[in-house]
Structure formats: structure tokens, C-alpha cells
């Protein structure tokens, strides 16, 4: 029986598009190169890839740009190599969900931010075609900034709906941009009039009710330790986002709040019962190599930085208010997490990545967990949690590296392990960071002007040490991207 033919590419609608490899496309490229508006092209084309799933356009586009920016993912892709691939970008949305329905503009921005890029987003209802043109010129004339566009294919006479791709160049005379389409199985790279692309972006995503747009990506000027991140994949994230962005300001407008302890009591006792699940400590997870217990200089450096950040958290006035309160000891937020329990969960998640089995942790079977101190010279501050996990029939040994933040007398310790005196960040630590990361206007509803002034002084990021300030600003931007989708799609 003869094979039934399937789809093999599509004819690129021209006009409005001009194929990059056509004689006219080559001429446009040559002229744009001479004008200096193809500087970013060479980095992008060096890492240009085809999306591995029909709905992975956002993930593939981001992987291309992150690799072009030479950002180290800090985790292995395959073998010993660290490399961004679209199958690795799952921290903000489960891959199985992306396969079915794609990913939103805000989630792509959040993924870029979480993976080490400085991100600026612009929706078309918040910008103009003139501003867009200026940003295109700025990005295409530099190797250090790249643009991702979110647009609707229909406006370009192409088949399909919403799509993401990077911009590879600009021709000023013809006012055309080069789209490096990551769906290369469908359409080749092509030039389109900038105004046509603007119209394609100036459409509403029916899933979020928000306009599409463009984002600019560059490397962080300063490196964040990324000690904390938001667990936006959790099924209860929508409820938490609504609480933090809408309900909390309403609660704080109550006249019953007279001092900081009243405020913190409202925040803790009124919060969703699983709020502590949404602020996660990012652990260092590695694969066990030949039974080696050595901690590398690179790993040691990251752990020292995290320990310093954790110490800085515990020096804040906000932490002292929270740790000394009776309601924190009684609140459901402050449930007990042993280091063994956390290590088990983290090692399972690490095994998923190391074994290439990204999915439910139920697919991973934890065999053993053991706490031990590293015997590497001069690393007394490191605890190594070893575990063996089974994914299908493959056994994977993983280790979680834990910085040791010395507990001061009277401060809460939640280690809960008989085999180690080491600490991991507590619920109080996490809640402190989460409150600090909330947008400053969260507190503007307080009616007591003196209380507002005092509290804003306590939580102002300007008053924090540099490392902790970077951490807070990093988390605040992640929160900004994530709350946008939730609140608009659910009309919270």
C-alpha cells in the first residue's frame, strides 16, 4: 500500500512576505547588512533551531535567543553539556500543557527572566508602531539584545494562529523586518513589512484577553543568586495570584489595622492554606559521578552566595517581626518541613531532568535518601543529600547541595533531621522574601499614613543589601509577569 502523503511545508504567501533565500531576499539582506541592521543576525542564526513540537514556537524561540545571548543554563542538556533546548523550558508551564495549547506571552517573558535574561515587554496597546520601529533598529544593530515577537499569522496571510519567532534583521529603506520563523517545517525565514507585522501583533490573544506584542532580551548586568522562585505550575497558583494582587490590598484597607503586627497577622491568617508551596527555595541538584563527593569551585561559589543571601534575609526587620510573632507559630502556613522531605522532593525533580523524564513526579520512585556532610576540604558549610531514584527501570543517583546558614539563638529552625544539624530556608524565610517582593503599591491602601511610612521603610528594596536586593527585584519581576495572565484570564 502506498504511503499517504502528509504536509510538507507550505507556500509562503508573497506578498506580503519575501523569502529570505530568494534573489530579492538576498538583496534585501545585503543592503541591510551594509546599513548595520543585521548585527544580531549572526548570533541568532548560529543557534537557530526548529521547534520540536507544533505548539513549541514560544519555547523554541526562547531557546534560540538564550543560546544567542550565551547564557549558561546551569544544568545539563545531554551528556556533560549545558545547553538550552525547548524541552528544558518547563518551569512556568508543564510541557504537556504547552504541547496542547501553546504558551502565553507573559509565560514566555517569565521563562526568559527565570533563565537569566533581562526582559522588557511591550504589548501593542501600551506602545506605538513608531516605538516598535525604534526598538527593532536598536536590537538589530546590536549583538547584545534580541527581539521576540508574538503575532497572529492570519494578518500575514499565513495559516495558523498565534505564533512566536525572533527578529533577525531590519531593512530601513524598505521598512521590512526579517522573521526567523522557528516553524521551519512550515515556512522558511522571510522578510515582511514592519507595519504588517505590527498589525499582526496588534491582535488579542483569546486565551488571555490581552494584546500580543514584543519583548527585548539581553543578559543580566548583575547575576542574581536565584535563591527563591515562584511555583506557578502548582494547580492552586491562580488562587494565590488573586490573593496577592487583589484580595490582600482589600484586606489591608480595613480600619482594624493599627500596627505592623496587625498587618502581618492579616497577611498570614487570611492567606490560602498552601501559600508556602508557592515560594520555593532553588536547590543545587547534580548527578552523582563515579561516587565522587567533591564539591567543585563553581558549586561552592553558588552555595556561598546563597548562604549569604539567606543570612541577609534573616537580618531584615521584616524577618524579625515575623519570626517573633505568635501567629506564625500557629498558622497553617508554618507547617513542618524536614530537610529529608524537601531533599526527597528535590531529588525526584532533579532526576526528572537528568533522566530526560520531564513530567509528573509520580513517575519517579525514590529509593533511598541519606544526609551527609561533604568531605571536601574547606567546605564545612556544605551538606550533601544523596538519593537514588528510579525512572521506569533506570536508576539515577542524585545529590542536593545545601548551604549551611548558622542559626542564631532564638531563630526558627526547621531542619527536622536527626542526621544533620544543617538548615534549609524556613517558611519564615520564604514568607519574608515573598512579602518583600510584592509590588510597592500593594500597601498604598493602608489608611494610617504613619503606619504606611514605617512599613514602606521596612520593606523598601533600596534599604536592602545588594545581593538580597537583586533577589527581591528578580522575584518581583517574575511575579509581575505571572499575575498578568492569571488576573486577566480570570477577571480577578
TrEMBL record:
InterPro entries: Papain-like_cys_pep_sf, PCS-like, PCS_N, PCS_N_sf, Phytochelatin_synthase_C. It holds the Pfam family Phytochelatin. Keywords: Acyltransferase, Cadmium, Metal-binding, Transferase. Residues 2-222 form the Peptidase C83 domain. Its EC number is 2.3.2.15. One of its GO terms (biological process) is phytochelatin biosynthetic process. This is glutathione gamma-glutamylcysteinyltransferase. One of its GO terms (molecular function) is glutathione gamma-glutamylcysteinyltransferase activity. It comes from Spinacia oleracea. It comes from the Eukaryota. The gene is LOC110787091.
Amino acid at each position: 500500500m502506498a504511503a499517504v502523503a502528509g504536509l510538507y511545508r507550505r507556500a509562503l504567501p508573497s506578498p506580503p512576505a519575501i523569502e529570505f533565500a530568494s534573489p530579492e531576499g538576498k538583496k534585501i539582506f545585503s543592503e541591510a547588512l551594509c546599513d548595520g541592521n543585521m548585527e544580531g543576525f549572526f548570533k541568532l542564526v548560529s543557534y537557530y533551531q526548529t521547534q520540536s513540537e507544533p505548539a513549541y514556537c514560544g519555547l523554541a524561540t526562547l531557546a534560540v535567543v538564550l543560546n544567542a545571548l550565551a547564557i549558561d543554563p546551569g544544568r545539563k542538556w545531554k551528556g556533560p553539556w549545558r545547553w538550552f533546548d525547548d524541552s528544558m523550558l518547563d518551569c512556568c508551564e508543564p510541557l504537556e500543557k504547552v504541547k496542547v495549547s501553546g504558551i502565553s506571552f507573559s509565560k514566555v517573558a517569565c521563562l526568559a527572566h527565570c533563565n537569566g535574561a533581562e526582559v522588557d515587554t511591550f504589548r501593542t496597546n501600551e506602545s506605538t508602531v513608531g516605538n516598535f520601529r525604534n526598538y527593532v533598529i536598536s536590537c538589530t544593530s546590536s549583538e547584545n539584545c534580541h527581539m521576540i515577537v508574538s503575532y497572529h499569522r492570519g494578518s500575514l496571510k499565513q495559516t495558523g494562529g498565534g505564533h512566536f519567532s525572533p527578529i533577525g534583521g531590519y531593512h530601513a529603506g524598505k521598512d521590512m523586518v526579517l522573521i526567523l520563523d522557528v516553524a521551519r517545517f512550515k515556512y522558511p525565514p522571510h522578510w515582511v513589512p514592519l507595519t504588517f507585522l505590527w498589525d499582526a501583533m496588534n491582535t488579542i490573544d483569546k486565551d488571555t484577553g490581552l494584546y500580543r506584542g514584543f519583548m527585548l532580551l539581553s543578559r543580566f548586568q548583575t547575576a542574581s543568586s536565584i535563591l527563591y522562585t515562584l511555583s506557578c505550575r502548582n494547580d492552586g497558583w491562580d488562587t494565590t495570584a488573586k490573593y496577592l494582587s487583589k484580595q490582600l490590598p482589600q484586606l489591608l484597607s480595613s480600619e482594624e489595622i493599627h500596627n505592623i503586627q496587625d498587618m502581618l497577622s492579616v497577611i498570614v491568617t487570611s492567606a490560602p492554606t498552601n501559600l508556602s508551596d508557592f515560594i520555593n527555595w532553588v536547590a543545587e541538584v547534580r548527578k552523582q559521578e563515579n561516587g565522587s563527593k567533591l564539591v567543585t569551585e563553581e558549586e561552592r561559589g553558588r552555595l556561598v552566595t546563597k548562604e549569604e543571601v539567606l543570612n541577609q534575609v534573616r537580618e531584615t526587620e521584616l524577618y524579625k517581626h515575623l519570626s517573633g510573632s505568635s501567629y506564625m507559630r500557629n498558622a497553617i502556613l508554618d507547617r513542618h518541613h524536614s530537610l529529608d522531605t524537601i531533599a526527597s522532593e528535590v531529588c525526584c525533580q532533579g532526576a526528572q531532568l537528568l533522566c530526560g523524564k520531564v513530567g509528573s513526579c509520580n513517575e519517579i520512585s525514590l529509593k533511598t535518601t541519606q544526609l551527609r556532610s561533604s568531605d571536601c576540604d574547606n567546605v564545612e558549610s556544605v551538606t550533601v543529600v544523596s538519593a537514588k531514584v528510579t525512572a521506569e527501570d533506570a536508576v539515577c543517583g542524585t545529590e542536593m547541595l545545601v548551604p549551611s546558614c548558622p542559626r542564631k539563638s532564638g531563630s526558627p529552625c526547621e531542619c527536622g533531621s536527626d542526621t544533620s544539624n544543617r538548615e534549609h530556608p524556613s517558611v519564615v524565610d520564604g514568607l519574608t522574601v515573598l512579602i518583600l517582593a510584592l509590588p510597592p503599591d500593594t500597601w498604598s491602601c493602608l489608611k494610617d499614613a504613619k503606619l504606611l511610612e514605617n512599613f514602606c521603610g521596612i520593606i523598601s528594596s533600596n534599604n536592602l543589601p545588594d545581593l538580597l536586593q537583586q533577589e527581591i527585584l528578580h522575584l518581583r519581576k517574575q511575579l509581575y509577569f505571572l499575575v498578568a495572565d492569571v488576573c486577566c484570564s480570570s477577571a480577578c
